[in-house]
Design brief:
Distance between the termini: 29 Å
Oligomer: single chain
Radius of gyration: 15 Å
Number of helices: 4
Strand content: 15-25%
Shape: globular
Number of domains: 1
Strand order of the largest sheet: 1-3-2
Low-confidence stretches: 6-11
Helix content: 55-70%
Structural class: alpha+beta
């Protein structure tokens, strides 16, 4: 690989470190739900060797929300909203597995 290619990979890693990255299904669904509520943004998702990573921002808000989620202190949500977020997750997963970018 040329040095320019390594530089591009390094720059991409630096850019992605600004985001909250997850490959966990429930965390992703929860953050997608919070995106609908205007608390976080889905910045990107990538299929890396068959593992799909989702990148959210702002990182600090995501870390706080996920901590609340895993410690059972998150705000309750309407079941239909959670179901819609799960449907969106499945759609993104299928798109990522196909290697398509239809965002």
């Amino acid at each position: 690989m040329k040095n320019g290619g390594l530089w591009a990979i390094s720059q991409e890693r630096n850019r992605m470190s600004d985001f909250f990255a997850t490959r966990d299904q429930m965390t992703t669904v929860f953050l997608l739900l919070r995106r609908k509520m205007g608390e976080v943004n889905l910045e990107d998702y990538k299929n890396t060797g068959g593992v799909i990573y989702f990148y959210f921002s702002p990182k600090d808000a995501c870390e706080r929300l996920v901590h609340e989620f895993v410690t059972r202190k998150a705000k309750f949500v309407q079941p239909l909203d959670f179901s819609n977020a799960f449907d969106e997750f499945k759609s993104l997963l299928i798109t990522a597995k196909r290697g398509q970018d239809e965002r």
